[in-house]
């Protein structure tokens, strides 16, 4: 079943990219709330990158699977509290939710040099949604410069979660705006190569608007455990 779901999702991603005339984006399997055994089954089917919302949950899964699956890549995609920055820098290969200057120094300070730079995506609150994590678009250039200038961190791009309109098509303008911001970022910082946007119900739209990485959970794992 995990292998079949993975094949189906990869084919759907391929189809969406072909239809849009876009490069095929990378797949991040969102494994939050899923048990380590479910991650292991998907890893055995060939999936290597997994996204977690919570630092402690992700760190525990990484530790549980390190011996059997040492080549997995772990992304933190949930909001990061400053007091969890040290553990996040140790446990994850990517942090996709950097949204304020205070996190930059904290992550760099706790990243072990032997691990290599921590890959960072800046989360943008592209629609100015009240109470939502993410930096304002107008604050992006200064925050990106700070990440790029900080040893121990690698600025890789942007991440966003649009307002979850019931009609996914209404999310297209936010995806399009994120692509514009990403293009501007990449012009200023040529090492930026990742635009993370799109989930199980809207990834085809995100791909059409230029996503280079899509975050998919339900279509791979089924409904989350309650």
List the helices and strands and how they pair.
Elements: H1 2-20, E1 26-30, H2 36-44, E2 49-52, H3 55-65, E3 73-76, H4 85-91, E4 94-98, H5 101-110, E5 118-123, H6 140-148, E6 153-159, H7 172-188, E7 194-196, H8 203-208, E8 213-216, H9 218-221
Parallel strand pairs: 1-2, 1-8, 2-3, 3-4, 4-5, 5-6, 6-7
Helix pairs in contact: 4-5
Describe the structure.
The structure is a single chain. The protein is of the alpha/beta class. It has helices spanning 2-20, 36-44, 55-65, 85-91, 101-110, 140-148, 172-188, 203-208, 218-221, and strands at residues 26-30, 49-52, 73-76, 94-98, 118-123, 153-159, 194-196, 213-216. An eight-stranded parallel beta sheet has the order 7-6-5-4-3-2-1-8. Helix 6 links the parallel strand 5 (118-123) and strand 6 (153-159).
Key attributes of the depicted protein:
single chain; 226 residues; alpha/beta; eight-stranded parallel β-sheet; 9 helices
Radius of gyration: 17 Å
Order of helices and strands: HEHEHEHEHEHEHEHEH
Low-confidence stretches: none
> Helix/strand/pairing class, anyone?
alpha/beta
Helix content range of the residues, please?
A: 40-55%
Number of helices: 9
Strands, count: 8
Average pLDDT, rounded to a whole number, is 96
Distance between the termini: 20 Å
Order of the strands making up the biggest sheet: 7-6-5-4-3-2-1-8
- Main sheet, how many strands, which sense, barrel? 8 strands, parallel
Query: How does the overall form come out from the CA principal axes?
Result: globular
Report the β-strand fraction as a percent range.
15-25%
């Amino acid at each position: 079943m995990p292998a079949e779901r993975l094949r189906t999702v990869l084919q759907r991603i391929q189809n969406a990219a072909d239809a849009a005339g876009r490069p095929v984006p990378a797949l991040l399997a969102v494994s939050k709330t899923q048990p380590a055994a479910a991650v292991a089954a998907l890893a055995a089917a060939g999936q290597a990158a997994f996204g977690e919302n919570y630092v402690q949950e992700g760190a525990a899964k990484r530790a549980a699977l390190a011996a059997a699956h040492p080549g997995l890549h772990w992304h933190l995609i949930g909001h990061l509290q400053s007091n969890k920055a040290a553990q996040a820098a140790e446990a994850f290969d990517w942090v996709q939710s950097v949204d304020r200057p205070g996190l930059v120094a904290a992550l760099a300070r706790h990243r072990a040099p032997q691990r290599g730079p921590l890959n960072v995506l800046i989360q943008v609150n592209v629609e100015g949604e009240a109470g939502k994590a993410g930096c304002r678009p107008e604050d992006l250039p200064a925050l990106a410069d700070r990440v790029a200038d900080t040893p121990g961190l690698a600025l890789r791009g942007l991440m966003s979660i649009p307002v979850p309109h019931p009609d996914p098509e209404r999310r297209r303008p936010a995806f399009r705006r994120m692509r514009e911001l990403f293009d501007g970022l990449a012009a200023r910082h040529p090492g930026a190569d990742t635009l993370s946007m799109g989930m199980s119900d809207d990834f085809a739209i995100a791909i059409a608007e230029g996503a280079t990485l899509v975050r998919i959970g339900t279509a791979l794992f089924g409904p989350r455990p309650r």
